[in-house]
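User: Is it possible to get a 3D structure for a protein together with its bound compound? The compound here is nicotinamide-adenine-dinucleotide. I've pasted both below.
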Amino acid sequence: MYMKILITGVAGMIGSYLLRDLISSGHKVIGVDNLSRGKLDHIKGVNGFNLEKDFMKADLSSIESCEEIFARLTKGDVIIHLADVVAGLGYVFDNEHHIFRENNIINSNIVTLSRRIAPCRFIYVGTACSFPKSLQLGSKSVMREEMLFPAEPESSYGWSKLIGSLEMKYAFKKSNIIFTTLILHNVYGRYTDYSIQTGQVIPSLIHKALLLKSGEHLKVWGDGSQSRSFIHASDVSSALVKVINYPNTLPEYIQIGPNQATTISDLAKEILRLCGIELKPQFDSSAPMGDLGRACDYSVAQSILEWTPSTSLRDGLQDLITWIKPRLNQSKSNP
Ligand SMILES: NC(=O)c1ccc[n+]([C@@H]2O[C@H](COP(=O)([O-])OP(=O)(O)OC[C@H]3O[C@@H](n4cnc5c(N)ncnc54)[C@H](O)[C@@H]3O)[C@@H](O)[C@H]2O)c1
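Assistant: Yes, that's possible. Here is the predicted structure of the complex:
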């Protein structure tokens, strides 16, 4: 069925995959982003998405900007809300108040205005960082949706995302709007921020590995034993498409991630191998490592949405290296 869909954060990593998937399924997409992390390059040249008409550059922490965007929506449209401040561990712990405040304002603006237009669906994305810190103890700690509460996330980012999902629930629970929060594990893919300072672990390790000079070691934060469930952005996009097409009421939370966790040590070794570098990573135990580890029980997604992950970590990493490499070469030749 044809739908008109607003994607917030459309020029970011997940938004750029989702835009392509929705357009190729024949939907009308309009997108908004303030380009703080996303880039126009990521969404340029997508057939059926006209940058001039269908994209709006706007800051969603301003209610006035949000009003302008919502003036383009009508009852029954779909809203997929991806825009929030997200970054690597270092940035998150150095900017806790900024992230908390910014995400709460963005989420509150979007949810409040959505109530007015009554979309047929409102989809939010949460994070595995919202699970209680005390439950994330290693690769054998398997997260299930009901473990989110009582809440005790480690970071202000984890709290802000959980509060976003609660605001959505309180706004829509007495309406006919179908809503859910997809709780995403660690997402990676093209169209990502690969800066060493602000990028997440996979793109920033690839960036560092590709810059290594002979004899240098790949420096990795923590002792390498911490683990994460890495999920490719194309698999997240396929889950979002399934959610949009689901005809009935959805559970409040659905986890999206693979059921095995990879240690950061294994991840770093695999990245070095795929980059053709015959060196071992060097671990910095004094650097922050975040939660110790978590894996994802995706049985709710499997039974309700018939969703399973399809991109292997090796294939996803190889594809991302292929995407980042020419960009680094280009910035070397145009410093
Ligand atoms: N990447 C992950 O590992 C991961 C894991 C769990 C959840 N998520 C969630 O998924 C969503 C998308 O994440 P992503 O990985 O694609 O990140 P991203 O940074 O690539 O995408 C987010 C987009 O939102 C935009 N944005 C930020 N603040 C904005 C504002 N005030 N106004 C308008 N646009 C704004 C950014 O420019 C960016 O393009 C986020 O809500 C994030 O919290 C991501």
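The first strand starts at residue 4 and ends at 8. The pocket of nicotinamide-adenine-dinucleotide is lined by residues 9, 11-15, 33-38, 59-61, 82-86, 106, 125, 127, 161, 184, 186-187, 200 (CB under 6 Å).
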